[in-house]
Write a structure and sequence with these properties.
two-stranded antiparallel sheet, elongated, six-stranded mixed beta sheet, single chain, alpha/beta
């Protein structure tokens, strides 16, 4: 594979216009970047490509391809290779997206500290960061840490945050000469404009009540308010922390996590039938029909599977909290699936590292991924309509006709 080593800008631009290249801007970026890299490689070799010279100290050895994310789109660059040593342009690293910069920083730090595995060593070479020095890694980490810290501590002033989702991921880290599991707590919400927003991220030693309580209190201190429904699994300590920090909000137990727990109370052969039966609860068109179907399913299970019947009856309010809100929101708030999709994106990046060198590296990478995701959500279409959110925030006036599961007492939208 070869790229042009010198470019006549006028002739090249005329050719692009003549052939009607639809990606003119991207093509221009690609050509100029490859020309710049060719010139830098010539400087390292001591002579221009293909020319004999007594001053030559090195020579070319083909190219390797690398995708480069730019404002004009993703560009596939041909990076020159040298027969002796290696070449990789520093400016190409600096222009990469925040999450990839964080990934490079974490992998490079692991490599320099001697804690990388064979897979990480291979990745380092593929990323082209074989010749990065400790000072370069330190500088990159400093810039990223400043960006992530600003994102994690920003004021949460886009409320009220009507719906909040909470979840945690487990990551491995080296501490005290051994490998331990730590927990990454993540909170997302829907803000007053109807967009999803990442509220915060924190790394704790254990996913217990104390860790969740401190995390949720930090969100309150930064401005979270107006919460009416919190969606999560039923992890020990989390529910108590939610009640202590959001006393006016309802708690929705994730239907997906709950169903897994429920199925452990029945024989394996009966699990498909029980799962189908429980799902009919969520197929109903009105809140009244949802509660009626829930009662009917309990009656259907009582004779053959009394343990499942008791389990489902005890979870009535936490499982059906979504029914107190407009039907248009049900699919979005009756489970933690939106948060699980975000977790999948985080794991796609963290799985590359495997074992982190320290907790700061976890915060750096996960924080950078979440900051990018938050930017994308701001530019995307609304997650919920403003009229729907207004209905959700309507105040129930004392003395009105009571409901079985009324909305929390909050201020009017």
């Amino acid at each position: 594979m070869a790229v042009p080593d010198s470019v006549n800008p006028t002739a090249w631009l005329a050719e692009q216009i003549e052939h009607g290249n639809p990606d003119l801007l991207r093509s221009m970026v690609k050509t100029m970047a490859e020309t710049l890299m060719s010139a830098e490689a010539d400087g390292l070799c001591g002579a221009e490509y293909g020319r004999r010279s007594n001053e030559r100290t090195n020579s070319r050895n083909g190219y390797r391809t690398r995708d480069w994310d730019t404002r004009a789109g993703t560009v596939e660059l041909a990076i020159p290779k040298l027969r002796s040593g290696s070449y990789f342009p520093d400016w190409l690293l600096e222009r990469r997206r925040r999450a990839e910069q964080a990934l490079i920083s974490v992998v490079a730090t692991s490599y320099l500290l001697g804690v990388s595995t064979r897979r990480v060593d291979k990745l380092v070479e593929q990323l082209g960061i074989k010749n990065i020095s400790k000072s370069q890694v330190s500088q990159m980490a400093k810039v990223l840490d400043e960006q992530v810290e600003a994102f994690r501590t920003r004021a949460l002033d886009a409320g009220p945050y009507t719906f909040v989702w909470l979840d945690a991921l487990t990551q491995k880290v080296r501490e005290g000469g051994r490998i331990i599991n730590v927990h990454v707590l993540v909170a997302t919400a829907v803000n007053a404009n109807g967009h999803r927003e990442i509220l915060g991220v924190e790394v704790t030693s254990a996913e217990d009540g104390a860790g969740w309580l401190a995390f949720l209190r930090s969100l309150l201190a930064r401005g979270v308010g107006g919460v009416q429904l919190v969606v999560s699994d039923a992890h020990a300590g989390l529910v108590e922390a939610i009640g202590a920090t959001f006393p006016g909000a309802s708690w929705q137990r994730c239907r997906t996590h709950y169903l897994r727990n429920l199925l452990t109370t029945v024989p394996k052969s009966a699990q498909p039938w029980v799962a189908t039966l429980v799902r009919t609860i969520f197929d109903q068109p009105t809140a009244e029909a949802v509660r009626t179907q829930h009662a009917w399913v309990i009656d259907a299970l009582e004779a053959k599977y009394p343990a499942a019947c008791e389990h489902l009856d005890a979870a009535r309010e936490e499982l059906l909290a979504f029914a107190a809100f407009p039907r248009e929101t049900w699919r979005q708030v009756w489970s933690n699936n939106p948060q699980e999709r975000l977790n999948k994106e985080i794991r796609r990046r963290t799985d590359v590292v495997g074992i982190f060198p320290d907790r700061a590296a976890i915060v750096r990478l996960v924080g950078a991924v979440l900051a990018e995701q938050s930017d994308e959500w701001i530019e995307a279409r609304r997650y919920m309509g403003l009229d729907i959110l207004a209905k959700c925030r309507m105040r129930i006036i004392a003395g009105d006709t009571p409901m079985q599961n009324p909305l929390p007492q909050t201020l009017t939208a």
